[in-house]
Amino acid sequence: MRNLHAGGFPEEAVRERARRGPAALFPPDADYGATVTGAGAEPTAGTGYPADDPLEGARLVPPVFMPERLEKLIDLGREPLFADVDLRTDIGGFASALPLYVSAFGSTQVGSGLALAAAGQAGRLGVPMVIGENVAPVSGYRADASVLRRLEAYEAQVPDGVGGVVVQQSTEDADAEVWNQVYSDPAVTRLVESGRLGFELKVGQGGKPGLGGMTMVGDDAGGRLADRYDVSASLGGEGGLCLRSSSPGTFTEEILHQQIRFMRNNFPRARVWAKLPPGRDIAQVVRVAWAAGADSVTVDGAEGGTGWAPSVFLSRVGLPLGECLRRIGSPGGCLLVSGRMWEAGRAVVALALGARAVGLGRAALVAVDEDSEQGLVRLVEALAMEARLLVSALGRYSTAALSPDDVLLPGTADAPAATVLSEP
């Protein structure tokens, strides 16, 4: 076999496509349903990503003079310590013990298999949790690890006065009237009456902006689903596989505004969230969502994970989260962000740049997979201690007090993030 790799040409990728055809556009078949994919931690050759993401190289920069520390000292009557940092946060209308939430897990095997354990631990922690799209259409509303079971697992452990569950809706969920089922279900009454139920309109996600839900199914299943989904794309492989594709939905400024108003009018006791992909017009879209009355807007950076997407989307499509934050600038409402969040360094930078809270996605799944009883709790406990250490080092004693002045972005050694973010 000839070696044609000269000049950095991706020879093996070309050979893989020559061998597998359209199936080579996706991760290995064996990974389907058993993993969560997303942008890698190292830059992809020729793309500069994620090296161009401001969050990757950002540094937190404490001052020497700390007037807020003096204020805290006077208030406490002693020198303040990192344990004095208050991490309690209002997240999209929910009181939360910490400035984080558990991101949406959908219907693929890896998400559904760990969903109940994650729901119980998220409830115990007193942080909000999102139930992902397409769960009811695939698993049924009341089946194991379905929408209702996840709601029940969370509700059974969440303390009074904190937390909340947000149910996401895609085009298939709308057809199945998932929000109507949840809102009218007696089993969910306690969450509704305590103001701890929310609905999230999914406009898109970071792992595959511009695309709808995708799953792999056998040819037989594809035949049964042909009346509801597009199953025309064959991926070949042993036993025959085809791509089941969903519509991503069509949005304009007017449509998004009307959708959010519809949610507020039809479900007046539920919080209203909107999840946005990392599009180039992200600043305009978040402003429209807040103006329409959204309690919270979630921006999923291109680093965000997904159950299934073409590999090229993971490295080539969408804005990195740091660039999304730069374009949004000073938020006009509750801004939540997700994308490769697992430790407090990246999280605190995002909070300083305008986010109200960060979402744990793949990190939460890994933690629950490691220990179904305590894994997520321990991960969050470590993250919380790390966050308190960092926030305290900045002379702050709540995450709301963080500022772009606390961050130095890559390539801006002579100017703090506050200056960079204010530039057009």
Strand and helix map with partners:
Elements: H1 11-20, H2 54-57, E1 59-60, H3 67-76, E2 89-91, E3 94-96, E4 100-105, H4 109-125, E5 129-131, H5 135-139, H6 147-157, E6 165-169, H7 171-175, H8 178-184, H9 189-193, E7 197-202, E8 214-218, H10 219-225, E9 230-236, E10 241-245, H11 253-266, E11 271-276, H12 282-292, E12 296-300, H13 311-316, H14 321-328, E13 335-338, H15 344-352, E14 357-360, H16 362-370, H17 375-393, E15 407-408, H18 417-422
Parallel strand pairs: 4-5, 4-14, 5-6, 6-7, 7-11, 11-12, 12-13, 13-14
Antiparallel strand pairs: 1-15, 2-3, 8-10, 9-10
Any overview of this molecule?
Helices cover 38% and strands 16% of the residues. Strand 2 (89-91) and strand 3 (94-96) form a beta hairpin. The longest helix is centred in the last third of the chain and has 19 residues, at 375-393. The chain has 18 helices and 15 strands. The chain has two domains: 58-209 and 252-422, TIM Barrel (Alpha-Beta Barrel), CATH 3.20.20.70; 214-247, no CATH class. The radius of gyration is 22 Å and the shape is globular. It has helices at residues 11-20, 54-57, 67-76, 109-125, 135-139, 147-157, 171-175, 178-184, 189-193, 219-225, 253-266, 282-292, 311-316, 321-328, 344-352, 362-370, 375-393, 417-422; strands at residues 59-60, 89-91, 94-96, 100-105, 129-131, 165-169, 197-202, 214-218, 230-236, 241-245, 271-276, 296-300, 335-338, 357-360, 407-408. Mean pLDDT is 85; it is low at 43-50. With 424 residues, it is α/β, with parallel strands linked by helices.
